[in-house]
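Schema walkthrough. Field components (list of strings):
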Amino acid sequence: MAISAFLTDTTLCIGCKACEVACKEYNGVPADGFTWTGRSYDNTLQLGHSTWRHVAFVEMEPRIGVGGNSGEHTTWQFLSDVCKHCEHAGCLEACPTGSIVRTELGTVYVQPDVCNGCGYCVVGCPFGVIDRRPEDGRAFKCTFCYDRQRNGDAPACAKACPTQSILFGDLDDLRARADARIHDLHARGVNDAVIYDPRETSVGGIHAMFIVRGDPEAYNLPAKPEVPTVYQRSGWRSAAVAAFLAIAGTALAFVSARASDGESASMEARRGEAHANGARRRSGARESV
Amino acid sequence: MTTTYYDVPLLKPPVWTWEVPTYFFVGGAAGGAAVIGAIAQITGTNGSLARDARWLAAAGAPISAALLTADLGRPERFINMLRVFKPQSPMSIGSWTLTAFSAASAAALLPRSAEASLPIFAIATTAAPVSALLGCGMLTYTGVLIGATAIPVWNERVKELPIHFAAGGMGSAAAALTLLGHDDAALNRIAIGAAATETLMGAILEFTPTPASAPLREGLSGLMVRTGRVLSGPVPLVMRTVNGSRRTRQIASVASLAGSLLTRLGWILAGRASAKQKPSS
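Field assembly_structure (string):
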């Protein structure tokens, strides 16, 4: 079966936020505040438990000739950000309940009837996407419109996009399409256009790719995202060392203390025994052999 | 130059509040107590110390479970933690470890007397060593739990955290037993070993700065982890090695316990600060 994917092209995005609205409407995502941020026209700022599509408004240095700018005006780039549905997903690996699953469509899906809100996925995501909704207690993120896809329909955001900036389709097809688009953009002089799909990192590529202009970090896309599972090997190795030290150290303490007790019957040992006896009397518990 | 998007943090801060770091403290102490209890029993040194240590381990387990359940967004679904076993999730490994540890440390309290029936005797005899092995898991896995995350200040220290937390757990267990009235020479040596390890780990954390280590040095989180590691490292190390009075060792124990708790609260706060820091590449 085909692997579902998004290709979000910032060079086509007009910042209309229809995707944000369509996502909220279709998925019944609750409102998460009404604030003016003063950050260009972006009043959502980031993805979160109640924002599954987020249009970033990136203001860049004026660039003559590209995008129809005159040289005096700021170049405006819009990026409709979304859950990356990683090849190696940190949230999925972290989830202790099995609530987060890989669907038959290759997407990463949180089963709301299983999630118990432990919060471990939140620190497992290298993109800062998934979050726990305080008023609900469970973790939420983009579902890739699993229900719509099951009915043969495109996700709400892709359906609503008026410029085809959000393309929905098969992963391999969209990767080929991204390459062709980059080739086309470069031929037209948009030389700073790049594909954001960190396949060389431990994330192993994403199922929601982007075409951005300039530095991906300007859009809050991390340069080198790592799936946190990669840190476990050295962590468990240290844990094994620590466990050995705890057992060996404790054994050594008892054996050496008994040895020195036997030799000198020191004051400390006698004191210790007296206290131990006291403790025994106080607790009144039956001493077992 | 690092470009950012209006300095909006890239990562989401941990949602955990005081329950999780308090659990790290209680669970670590309970795990340490199980190790002390089993080895005291095997070496046959001090029966009352072995018994009290086993009680401490068994009491810590349900408190740990209660703290973890209280932290969940949906506490009524705590049982979903045992829905699957996922070796790639330290949270899953930890949930199963805590469950098994609760059972083993409770079983270790069964009477091992001659009157007991054979199955009871067999369970009681094996339960203490088993609880000690699971206790090692309790001592260490929390370090891997926060180390293997996307939070830079935590994952940079994934090597140090399990040893740091295990030393704190052993120190807390020894301290709690000291305050319960024990003044065994072996217990003092365990506490000295734990405090020495904490001092060493504190020195490593202090003097080998990493790119994202600012929250361990600055702000409230920096103050808490620094104060915590002094209280659980050098303070009990000096107070217990000077060969002072029993009173001195009790004060050292209070410092160990306070330091261990403060350190864990501080690490969670540091994680929150780390997630909010400007992304650095």
